[in-house]
Amino acid sequence: MVYSFLWITLGTIFIDATHDFFSGFMSLRNDGFTMPAIILKYLETTARQFVAFVTIITGVLGAAVFST
Questions:
Q1: Rg of the chain (C-alpha set)
Q2: CA 53 to mean position of chain CA atoms
Q3: What pTM does this model have?
């Protein structure tokens, strides 16, 4: 029980810190663009559609989990 709490807590902290660092770094290198603007700049149409699909599915699944 304690190990799972520590794993979830510390894992969330480190993964979130890594995500925030890299997204901030990408934004800084691209003149302060937001993530959607960076995606539009670097990905082709098929990859953009895939990213949009994954984002929508993740949002729906997250909403479903928190609504129950």
A1: 16
A2: 13
A3: 0.57
